[in-house]
Design brief:
mainly alpha, 179 residues
């Protein structure tokens, strides 16, 4: 069964285009109009490029629906198709959402804190289901940067201006995700 070409990402997809495509894909998944093979093909086409993967994750992880709460076999297999891109984005999404739970809680924005907690839980769940060595590597590098205030991910922490409490939340979330 062929997948509609409208659900396949091109190599030149933009971040915005990937968001739109993922929204369409999620609608099709929720309506049970796609087989697991079609889901795998569509998601794999998205996550093979950085823009596609970024757009996929920002949409998939924040979606109000329940599809991302129990990732399907098609989604899981597609994510395994590009471990380098997927691992870094998943671990960064886990870190950023953990930091944002702290930020939103501080500012009494419980709805936003709950949304960030949902992204954190979905990211952790995917990391644990995927069991990819690349996720372990990225997570270990991130934890090392947190401990030494240098290394592979220190620039990432600096860019987002995370404070000590947020870094503690990131360390806890990342450590828990990789066991």
């Amino acid at each position: 069964m062929n997948i509609p070409s409208s659900l396949l990402a091109s190599e030149s997809i933009t971040f915005e285009g990937a968001i739109e495509l993922t929204q369409s894909l999620l609608s099709e998944i929720e309506a049970h109009r796609l087989s697991q093979a079609q889901i795998e093909q569509a998601v794999a086409s998205l996550v093979k490029t950085p823009n596609g993967a970024r757009g996929f994750f920002v949409t998939y992880l924040t979606d109000e629906g329940q599809v991302a709460d129990s990732p399907s076999p098609g989604v899981i297999e597609a994510l395994r198709s590009t471990p380098e891109i997927v691992a870094e984005l998943l671990v960064k999404n886990l870190a950023m959402s953990a930091a944002m739970v702290v930020y939103h809680s501080r500012h009494q924005s419980e709805e936003r804190a709950a949304g960030s907690a949902r992204v954190q839980g979905r990211s952790r769940n995917l990391i644990q289901i995927l069991q990819m060595p690349a996720c372990q590597t990225v997570a270990s590098q991130m934890l090392a940067s947190l401990q030494s205030a240098s290394g592979e991910y220190e620039e990432f922490f600096q860019r987002w201006g995370y404070d000590d409490e947020q870094k503690l939340a990131i360390g806890s979330a990342v450590g828990e995700a990789i066991g």
